[in-house]
Design a protein that fits this description.
binds S-adenosylmethionine, single chain, Rossmann fold, 25S rRNA (uridine-N(3))-methyltransferase BMT5-like domain-containing protein, BMT5-like, rRNA (uridine-N3-)-methyltransferase activity, 19% helix
Length: 257
Amino acid sequence: MAEDQNQGQELQWKKFEYVGTVINKVEYSHTILCLDPLPQPSTIFVFLGEGNFTFSTAFAKLRGSNYDEIVATDISVSKEIKDGWPRRLRLDATKMGETRNVFLEKLFLDQKPSRIVLWFQCPWADKDENGRKYSNQQAFLKKVMAAAAKVQDPGELLLIGLCVDPTLPKNKPTEEKWVTSYGNPKAVAAQNGYECLGADREFVGKMLDGGYEHQFTDPGLNFGKRKILKENRQFATLLFKRQQLHPAQGPHQTQDP
Ligand SMILES: C[S@@+](CC[C@H](N)C(=O)[O-])C[C@H]1O[C@@H](n2cnc3c(N)ncnc32)[C@H](O)[C@@H]1O
């Protein structure tokens, strides 16, 4: 990451103490994510479970600077691009590395960043590590947060984007609504040493304008027919900040919420 090209904007947030947003019966402070052209330390943005890579590409466009500060990853990447843009790597978001250094080595960076932002837009796992069908998204989120806690330092941001449209999926009445299948991310985050800063309900709108396409298959529709979520109101971005833990607490805990 060359410092002289470092004109990118920093990810900031504004918190509105007296307004809340309720997601799956849990209240979150209303927070607005924004990009500010501030002097900044070198930050690496690691996008997890990027699917078709339109989310990280929209972010790079929005941020308008060094593409080498953005790493897009997914467990399904078969052809990695380790250098240049788009940097695409195969990464299991539940096993990022036992330490920060091990994780950084996996990212093939020229220099060590001073900050790591992790961002998983719409976490969803269909299969477990043995390839068996899997449907416990709450457990998946818990594993992702526990893995994040091993590699992030206090003060660093973990962003979790959720589809909060209470009507989806529409076409199979027996299917659990997506927003409920996540359980209580705030409680899981607290167990893993993350403070919840709130939920943003606007930033994804900018990403959609920048070309983000969230594709999904509605289980009641013809198999294989893909649809795209197009509206900002269908998303929320939860912001979590890694906390300073008491040494006796260890790196992470994994009890049920
Ligand atoms: C619902 S899709 C979201 C894709 C994209 N982030 C978006 O918003 O359009 C969930 C993604 O998580 C990925 N995924 C599932 N298990 C994963 C794991 N253990 N590690 C990393 N990615 C995983 C899938 O391959 C898929 O691309």
